[in-house]
Amino acid sequence: MEEDVDVKPLSVATAPPFPTVIAPKRRYGTRDEFEDWTGPSRRKKAKKSKNAVQDEDDDDNYDPATENLEWKQWARELETDIVKIGKCSRWGDDDMEEDQPKKKVLAQHETPSELVFPLLPFQGEFLTWSLSREESNMRGGVLADEMGMGKTIQAISLIIAGRTAGHGHDPNAPDAKNLNTTLVVCPVVAIEQWKSEIERFTKEGTLKVLIYHGNRKHITVKELAKHDVVLTTYSIIEHDYRKILPDKLSAAKDDFSLLHSVKWVRIILDEAHTIKDRASNTAKSVFALQSCYKWGLSGTPLQNRVGELYSLVRYLEINPYAYFFCKKCDCKSLEYSATMCDKCEHASTLHFCWWNKVSFACGKSMKLLRQKLLDEMLLRRTKIERAADLSMPPKLSFVRKVVFDAKEDDYYQSLYSQSKSVFNTYVKEGSVLNNYGHIFDLLTRLRQAVDHPYLVVHSATGASGNLLSEGSEDTKIACPRCETPLTVDAKSSKVVGKKLTGYRKGSIINRLDLNDFVTSTKIEALKEEVKKMISKDTSAKGLVFSQFTSMLDLIGYSFELAGVKCVKLDGGMSLSQRSTAIDTFRNDPECKLFLMSLKAGGVALNLTVASYIFLMDPWWNPAVEHQAQDRIHRIGQYKPIRVTRFVIENSVEERILKLQEKKQLVFEG
Ligand SMILES: [Zn+2]
Ligand SMILES: [Zn+2]
Fold it and tell me: How far does the centroid of ligand 2 lie from the alpha carbon of residue 327, in Å?
């Protein structure tokens, strides 16, 4: 589905996010869930193994030979803590109140003189905390402030203050590969932004910045060493890591990764939840980087399961939580070997990690996790908590309900009844589950039809695909806008009008006869709202989000006709195209709208120059919509935010809204 930008299968999209880091629901913490990221449990594995280990459950027995091993001492310490915590109780029980995380009381570090703006009080507190983390055994941590609270500026202040405090490599063990450079890893959309924030927030010459992206063959260790900050992306790290993978099939000529060949003073992962799957190549390539200190920045360190935290713990190499311990000897390792341990002579089934020993379904384990680990490694503040520091303008939300015109309604209703009859057939056959993908397609088409019938009729595959294979000849329906019948492949039947620049090759615009171009009810409603916006405040700008890139193209073309300047951000754009678009939007007073898909623009973009948001189609998951809003509801925003969502009455969208309300309860409860 080329059109379909952000849609995920229902099962994924409907998984509700955690309300906060600290209050997971019971069903996320089952043992089974942990097994898929910590490897099979010892019991299962031992049963499968031919040379089954006999003493698989003996770790509580007294054994003088292992009594002084680190893990046993640690286990005893945990026992004591568990007794202290008291009876096992589940989340949501009456002990909720005492479960509230205790707030850290932190002194406020003064703003480093190299910064141009003073730090806000909570940002100064981070500086105190982060410097103390670097001086502790943790040697790093996670800044998990809610989105829009200035995590970047806080990280920049740490780089500067850490240098002033003399944080760095052990002077007694000099090594040519030690660099006093901080490596920042971020999504590609954020790379230019990091550079410009460093320039904007620090006095000239404070930090020398190098972008390690694109053409980088000429860059040497010497070159890296000349800079204070090197900016790169997760995909570069992953790409370069492939060259040095231990199990690589063939050794190519350049099996060398510059970023992995040095020891950085500090690594900062922006949007650190990118590595939440510890088995992914992205995570592995990041784990392989070396540094004195390691940091993660993430507004959502925990999206679905407690297990996702393990990856951050592993990245930070927190002792003992990140390690696999051997029950028989003092071996401990960050990796779980396949059958026999690489480091000692014992079977890998004799090795365990804390994360697959405990059950997080049990309240006391969660408390332990929080008190012993999260409180130490993670700092999280919310905008509401620190509203006084932030003095953020209010956010107003509106739902604009619109009604189809008669033709659109006819079209939608026939599409709907066709989809429904296909669905009913599956129900009768009992094959709903087998046809899950197809049903999802049908649903997506309905959602597209609500935006503009063109999205269905002129989709890249034509409309003759799945949808009508079940329908008979006489149920053919035509586009209410251009009368193109649904069963005809739109690509070949249409004479394309004047050629347009600025649209990518596969764009829907190139498949339309632009002489007959018509907008849709929804686009007209958007045009009205934008008109209102400009008449209220001539300097106002807005972001327009849709899940369908073709919808963005149709909107872009409609505004082009109306003489309103827009820029667009989609997944297929190069780094320089992106930064040109962002630059134009920020600096050109004529440019009023930024059209984007959440996939391309949903993360790590600071667009506070805009104060209006238009959401063209509802998402299954309300958290995703929040992410869109956080692009502009953040530090640096001085105007009240207005969020408008467009919903067509009596359509599939109203049902999605109902579903969202339910989830909102889960989200907030
Ligand atoms: Zn061993
Ligand atoms: Zn071992």
Answer: 8
